């Protein structure tokens, strides 16, 4: 785990603790604005709701069926906070139809994109 990710997790934990909300609710840090700089954030529900998944610059997800099976073909909203384009792919191992997301680009409902809800891998373009 890199130091940036550790610091992000610690900051989120501190914010949740200070808010008085139970740390296991998940919803306490699921808001779009809580997606940190340098992260690619994904949600299992539209409008940036639901359980978020964060990937950082040095990561990729060649196969969501293995790394995040509940999110495979279930990405509903996404926000790129990494200062380079990232691509989402229809199938594992970066194959099939793709959707490019530029820096700070977001999609609140992936059904409106070419991928619909069928995202199975992602990486920097």
Structure, described:
- With 125 residues, the protein is α+β, with helices and mostly antiparallel strands.
- It contains 2 helices and 7 strands, in the order H-E-E-H-E-E-E-E-E.
- A 4-stranded antiparallel β-sheet has the order 2-1-3-6, with no helix packed on it. A 3-stranded antiparallel β-sheet has the order 5-4-7, with no helix packed on it.
- Strand 4 and strand 5 form a beta hairpin.
- The two termini are 23 Å apart.
- Mean pLDDT is 80; it is low at 1-28.
Keywords summarizing the entry:
125 residues; four-stranded antiparallel beta sheet; 17% helix; disordered N terminus
Topology:
Blueprint: H1 3-19, E1 39-45, E2 49-56, H2 64-67, E3 77-80, E4 86-91, E5 95-101, E6 106-107, E7 121-124
